[in-house]
Structure formats: structure tokens, C-alpha cells
Design goal:
The chain has one domain. The chain contains nine helices and two strands; from the N terminus they run H-H-E-E-H-H-H-H-H-H-H. The protein has helices at residues 3-12, 15-28, 51-57, 62-90, 101-113, 116-128, 135-139, 143-146, 155-163; strands at 33-36, 39-42.
């Protein structure tokens, strides 16, 4: 492994980077209507279209990209809070990743250390990638991202919750 490769891994193995990528994933790939083994399932959160294009278009400027990702995370958290209110009334848990202030701080550090376009494009790619469902794959993720309290709500999980 070369020094250059190790630098890429420093980005893609960073827990804060992965938590923000997971938030992108949950706002885009695992949102709205999703296909399950039992058919189409409507999730409680809507898919955010055009996020990859927006983030990519802002990646030429560190300031513009930081503003775009901060805006996305603020809206994502507002949606989480809205959903959480309803879930509490129903006695359910909201199982979406919740990026923290420290994650945004760490992303800003990565933007200082690496090229903004590189960090942005890796974040977009990881955000739109298919994340593992198997326990072995979850074991390979950092602890919090493999934890059921912060994992993606899989459509099959929602169907089980509704039956209880």
C-alpha cells in the first residue's frame, strides 16, 4: 500500500466521515419507497433528490461545500426530530444515524487536510453506495455504525415493527 492509498483510507475509514455518508445514504438511497422481499414499502422519510448534484457542484470551493453539507445536515436533523416526535407517540425508536457536532468538526478537519473535491466525491460515493445488511459486514464497520440504534431501518425491520 502506498502513502497515497493510506491517505485515502484515512478519509474513508474515519468514523465521522462514515456517519455523514450514512446520513446521505438514509436521505437518498434508503428513503421514500423502497423495494423489499415482500414488495414496495413506503418509509416515513422522503427521498432527497439531487443531493449528489448539489454537493458535487459545490465541491470546487471549500466554503461552498461546507455550507452545502451543513445545510443538508441541518435539514436531515430537523427531519429526524419531526419523525422522532411521531415515533415516541407510537412507542417506536427512530433508527436513523444521527451525525453529531464532532462529526461536522472532523469533516472540516478532513477538508483542511485533503482536497475538497476528493473529500466531497468520496462522501457522495459512500453516501450513495449500498451499505451492508449482513452481521459480518456490520462487524467490519466502526462500532456506532454497526449498532442497531444508529443503523439504517431496513424495510423488513419496519414491517416487523408494525406487526407488534
Amino acid at each position: 500500500m502506498t502513502k497515497k492509498d493510506a491517505d485515502f483510507l484515512k478519509i474513508t475509514r474515519d468514523e465521522s466521515f462514515l456517519r455523514i455518508a450514512k446520513a446521505i445514504n438514509q436521505a437518498t438511497v434508503y428513503a421514500g419507497k423502497v423495494q423489499t422481499k415482500k414488495g414496495v414499502k413506503e418509509l416515513d422519510w422522503q427521498r432527497q433528490y439531487g443531493l449528489a448534484q448539489l454537493l458535487s457542484s459545490q465541491s470546487g470551493s471549500k466554503k461552498d461545500f461546507a455550507c452545502a453539507i451543513a445545510d443538508f445536515l441541518a435539514k436531515y436533523e430537523a427531519e429526524n426530530l419531526r419523525l422522532l416526535e411521531g415515533y415516541i407517540k407510537q412507542g417506536k425508536r427512530l433508527m436513523r444515524v444521527q451525525p453529531k457536532k464532532e462529526d461536522l468538526d472532523r469533516l472540516m478537519e478532513l477538508l483542511e487536510e485533503f482536497d475538497t473535491v476528493l473529500v466531497a466525491n468520496l462522501l457522495i460515493a459512500y453516501g450513495y453506495a449500498k451499505w451492508p445488511k449482513s452481521q459480518k459486514a456490520k462487524d467490519d464497520l466502526p462500532d456506532e455504525l454497526g449498532d442497531e440504534n444508529s443503523a439504517t431501518v431496513e424495510p423488513e425491520d419496519l414491517e416487523d415493527d408494525e406487526e407488534e
